[in-house]
Amino acid sequence: MVYLYETARVDYSDLASGSVLHSAPGMPAFPVRLATEIFQRALALRGGADPAVVWDPCCGSGYLLTVLALLHRPRVKTLLASDLSEDVLGTARANLNLLTETGLRDRAAELADRAERFGKPGYALAAEAAERLARRLAASGGPVPHHVLRPADVFDPAQLAAAIDGDEPDIVLTDPPYDEQTSWQGSHQDKNLPAMMAALGEVLPPHTVVAVAVRGRRVPAGAGVRPRQSLRIGTRAVAFFAAADLTVAGRRSSPR
């Protein structure tokens, strides 16, 4: 299926992981063009014009959420980020803190100082990119409210509910581990996507749009559960559900 929203190729080099945005070992960046296509499709499925509360329960470095906020600031109300690893959440905090009043300016100054001290042109170019992103963020709405939540196992509904603590996400958008550079962690035995989505279904409002991206031909959602929409581009497949669908998924796919 072709792109519906991101029909033109755009230079996203300012958003390269490890340049302005922070990177972490084993935390690969998500393709920016595909991320923004998924987000806009999820907004269309949700309906309405209000900015969205967006949650990534497998946030990793926070790259996906940070990129979406920088590119779609007027359509983002709040970002919620959670993951099982506290170490990973530290990187997510560093990235999401770039979305504050001084975050990108301070990052630009840091990179410019590195360029001067180490004489590396790459740092100077990254500093210029940070300044451009800062201007873009200011012009499109300014700082983005965000919460890096407590560590939460995505297979445990109680931990997920405690993490969001009463917030009601409009959109869940996540790129869960797929056993290449990343893999599932924690103590739960049902480590598969249907189990993850069933847990999300237990804690989300029924209308929440859940978009899940994987490497492969399709997103395994559980027996009898059909996505509201699906997308396949390159090596990735994406499926869109309403949270109400995922409660049914858990009932049908849970082991007995």
TrEMBL record:
UniProt keywords, alphabetically: Methyltransferase, Transferase
BP-aspect Gene Ontology terms: methylation
Source organism, top-level taxon: Bacteria
Name assigned to this protein: rRNA methyltransferase
InterPro entries found in the cross-reference section: AviRa, DNA_methylase_N6_adenine_CS, SAM-dependent_MTases_sf
SUPFAM superfamilies xref list: S-adenosyl-L-methionine-dependent methyltransferases
Pfam families: AviRa (PF11599)
Phylogenetic classification of the source organism: Bacteria, Bacillati, Actinomycetota, Actinomycetes, Streptosporangiales
MF (Gene Ontology): methyltransferase activity
